[in-house]
Here is the input.
Amino acid sequence: MASTAEIFEKLLQKPPPSTRPIAFNYLVPNTRGLENLTKILASRQNPHNMQKPTEGGKAAAPITSTYDPNEMPTTDPAASAYPSPPPSPTVNPSSTSLSSPLPEISLFAAATETFSQKNTNTSIASSLQTCRDITTAAKSHSIRVRGYVSVALGCPYEGPDVPPTRVAEITQTLLEMGCDEVSVADTTGMGTAPRTLKLLQALSAAGIRMEDLALHFHDTYGQALVNTVVGLEQGVRIFDSSVGGLGGCPFSKGATGNVSSEDMIHLLHSLGLETGVNLEEMAKVGEWVTAEIGRPNEGRAGKALLARLRDQ
Here is the structure.
């Protein structure tokens, strides 16, 4: 199996073309992991910032832009209960690193002490100090940092009643140390609509802006899409998902993967939101990748769509 470094080097050599910005996110457990990443970046930088031609002789579409992913739309509240995200970014030819994927690192903290010890073998306080050290180093290299708060809506060891104020404190700490965005994660899938609302209200009361947040729902109890709608109503516009519903958590027995990208996209489109994602093509990817690795395809909307298309 290829290492993270090998995969990253391959992506730098031949990044997939896209008219939209693509961020390749890597989990960095310590400063040593970040050092390895920055060494690869330094060795592969292209001084000309030009996209290499494809086989047809034309330059492939650049994959970064000056679009701010956290910018919130200004929409008349009377026009829609779910205002659309900002329009698709316009790629700026002068944008930096056009020939390379946009690097982004991930840092994990937990909302309970037991899960922190089980997952990272350290306390919450110690893990946050490690996050601070990594964030400081990443910012010196202009690398975007994404923080995560695990078990925000339920812990496999301490139960479902994780104090929302504690989640807010950890989230605030991650943002204050320099994280560009924090994904608040229902790792166990225990979250419900009322408890998701209570958590978001606690985050807002702590002075945390919804545009600085992402929500990360596992679909263990079938509540991920319901909780997504609650997040939309409160102003969150960034949601994690996984194609085919792949994923899970080794420290949370029975936890399924993230809500499937196919189901998430179907929900957002049904509400009139623009995602820029072709659901049919996403469904094909979900079908392919789950078959390749021998896992069930949990993308219900994708499976239904492909079945209907094949009957036509």
Q: What stands out?
A: The first strand starts at residue 23 and ends at 27. The longest helix spans residues 124-140.
